[in-house]
Design goal:
Elements: E1 19-22, E2 30-42, E3 46-60, E4 64-66, H1 72-78, E5 85-87, E6 108-110, E7 124-127, E8 133-149, E9 152-167, H2 171-176, E10 180-183, E11 189-198, H3 213-219, E12 222-231, E13 241-243, E14 263-265, E15 286-298, E16 304-312, E17 346-354
Parallel strand pairs: 1-7
Antiparallel strand pairs: 2-3, 3-8, 4-7, 5-6, 8-9, 9-10, 9-11, 11-12, 12-15, 13-14, 15-16, 16-17
């Protein structure tokens, strides 16, 4: 535990050490949103809704900035020479109460560490200190709904979106505060459908409406409610590397999702030139189907019970997690686990009694 010294050190505060503080003059974030919607009544009680949505935001502060960052070009140009050790000009330079940081105790330091804008300090992090990045988002949203009639209803939704953010392509851009529009790695498409279907067998339905009571109890009065969810794969982001070809392959699987042979480690003191992501190179998509089968039994006017069966991941399909994109990993290019929060088929039975 170190006592808070508040303003006691004045201009000597944190000398020889790093510091973190909040941006004091943060501009207000702006967000402009536009909706263009068309609705249409269709036959058989269906309603179609098509929306084009645009969002443009500016002055987004969601990262920290090191105002004492060393110009990376110094290392790129001078390579190993920047690691040469020299005498530390701040070694025991002032009384410990005025220069309290660990830098005072180091007899030698690297030449590179003295290239900081403020070499008497370590990293100086400003929270929400990045100068105004922007974000743009566009999506096509389609909704098709059928109200309950003739024993059937459903709601179908589809979203196709494209998102870009202002980011620093590499550490040189970060030092020079030069933004590049980088595509978001999120999946581009999502489809979901939920519905209810009165299976047309049994009393009061299209088939076997006059069936004997025992037969009606077995096959009549069942309702099926499916829930279908599908999304395309997420775009994979890669770190700096030497890339000599197209990493996309036509017969990808979880053991070889892309061509790892075109990647090799980036040599030391070399800026990256490879893109963050590649068009069409996405991780595994996801298709999941859940379903509920429900039947009500009326024993008397006041006594009834519902029998239901719920099944999750009906197809018992496997959704692999995104493959490893760390070029230094032994599992580079492979997916070794299933997607988080997914599982094999699970089925449960339930009984609800009302009286």
């Amino acid at each position: 535990m170190v006592p808070a010294y508040q303003k006691a050190l004045g201009t000597y505060t944190q000398l020889g050490d790093g510091s973190t503080y909040y941006e004091l003059n943060r501009p207000r974030q702006n967000s402009d949103r536009f909706n263009f919607s068309v609705q249409r009544q269709l036959p058989t009680g269906m309603v179609l809704d098509v929306t084009y949505y645009i969002n443009r935001s500016s002055f987004i502060f969601d990262t920290t900035r090191n105002v004492n960052m060393i110009d990376p070009n110094i290392a790129y140009q001078n390579k190993d020479a920047v690691n040469q050790q020299v005498n530390n000009p701040f070694y025991n330079i002032l009384p410990v109460e005025k220069f309290p940081g660990p830098l005072r105790y180091q007899q030698t330091v690297s030449i590179l560490s003295l290239m900081r804008p403020y070499p008497q300090y370590g990293d100086l992090w400003v929270i929400d200190g990045e100068p105004g990045g922007n974000m743009k988002y566009q999506s096509l949203q389609i909704k098709l709904q059928k109200n309950f009639s003739k024993g059937f209803s459903f709601l179908l939704g589809y979203n196709h979106h494209f998102e870009q953010d202002h980011r620093y392509f590499d550490d040189i851009d970060q030092y020079e505060k030069h933004y590049t529009w980088i595509d978001s790695p999120t999946s581009r498409q999502r489809l979901s459908m939920a519905g209810t279907w009165e299976i047309p067998f049994g009393k009061g339905r299209h088939y076997l409406s006059g069936a004997p009571r025992i037969l009606d109890a077995l096959v009549g009065g069942w309702n099926l409610s499916p829930l279908i969810t599908w999304r395309s794969g997420r775009y994979m982001q890669f770190g700096g590397a030497v890339v000599t070809g197209d990493p996309r392959i036509s017969n990808s699987n979880h053991n070889r999702w892309f061509d790892t042979s075109v990647f090799s480690p980036l040599p030391a003191y070399t800026p990256r030139t490879n893109p963050w992501l590649y068009s069409g190179l996405t991780g595994p998509g996801m298709l999941n189907i859940d379903a509920s089968l429900v039947k009500g039994f009326h024993i008397t006017e006041r006594f009834k019970f519902d029998l239901r069966m719920d099944s999750f991941n009906v197809l018992n399909s496997i959704t692999w997690a995104d493959p490893d994109t760390n070029i230094y990993s032994s599992t580079f290019g492979t997916s070794t686990d299933i997607l988080a929060n997914t599982h094999g088929r699970r089925t449960q039975l339930g009984l609800r009694v009302e009286f």
